[in-house]
């Protein structure tokens, strides 16, 4: 059974970004993997491993797709991997750390074609936040937008006002670097 294009994600942001390329997944399957960083694992290695493991996990469950895409995004402050903020306290901790500093958002993309060949790309974007006041942090935490987001913020929302510098892929920060994705999908035979 051929299920066309499978997106190994339940992220509405990734679906919206794919739509900008004119691509609609035929099937959405959320990967179920352990996303705990390994001891001493650096951000680039971590995010690349996560995208690959997500692709492999979904490929093992999915009916024979023609193309499968998985991605992972992480925010790194130096060598430190910031978590997906699951509580308001974690959102605040991330914002305190990122306030007035540059950080790197890594998004790895893994694509598996119908023949089982894996292709990967990594996007790294440097983002700098302005120095955040206590009131700005508190208002952002209270809005709830940073919950579940890597590094505790969503650049496509209210946090856009915190960004004083960006070098790289804006869509990569949102969760899917479109330039790299288009190259991978084309190379994998997706029209």
TrEMBL record:
The active site is at residue 72. Its cofactor is a divalent metal cation. It catalyses: UTP + H2O = UMP + diphosphate + H(+); dTTP + H2O = dTMP + diphosphate + H(+). Gene3D superfamilies: 3.90.950.10. One of its GO terms (molecular function) is UTP diphosphatase activity. It holds the Pfam family Maf. InterPro entries: ITPase-like_fam (IPR029001), Maf-like (IPR003697). Its EC number is 3.6.1.9. One of its GO terms (biological process) is nucleotide metabolic process. The record marks 13, 73, 156 as: Important for substrate specificity. Keywords: Cytoplasm, Hydrolase, Nucleotide metabolism. Its main location: cytoplasm. It is an enzyme of class 3 (hydrolase). GO terms for cellular component: cytoplasm. NCBIfam families: maf. HAMAP family: Maf (MF_00528). This is dTTP/UTP pyrophosphatase.
């Amino acid at each position: 059974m051929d299920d066309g294009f499978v997106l190994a994600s339940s992220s509405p942001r990734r679906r919206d970004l794919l739509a900008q390329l004119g691509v609609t997944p035929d099937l959405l399957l959320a990967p179920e993997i352990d996303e705990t960083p390994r001891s001493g694992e650096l951000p680039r290695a971590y995010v690349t491993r996560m995208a690959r493991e997500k692709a492999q996990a979904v490929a093992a469950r999915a009916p024979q797709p023609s193309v499968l895409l998985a991605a992972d995004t992480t925010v790194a402050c130096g060598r430190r991997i910031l978590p997906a903020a699951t509580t308001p306290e974690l959102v605040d901790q991330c914002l305190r750390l990122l306030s007035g500093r540059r950080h790197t958002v890594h998004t790895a993309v893994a694509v598996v074609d119908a023949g089982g060949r894996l292709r990967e790309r990594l996007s790294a974007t440097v983002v700098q936040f302005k120095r955040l006041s206590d009131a700005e942090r508190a208002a952002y935490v209270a809005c709830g937008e940073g919950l579940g987001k890597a590094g505790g913020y969503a650049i496509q929302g209210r946090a856009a006002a915190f960004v004083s510098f960006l070098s790289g892929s804006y869509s990569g920060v949102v969760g899917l670097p479109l330039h790299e994705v288009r190259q991978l999908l084309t190379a994998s035979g997706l029209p």
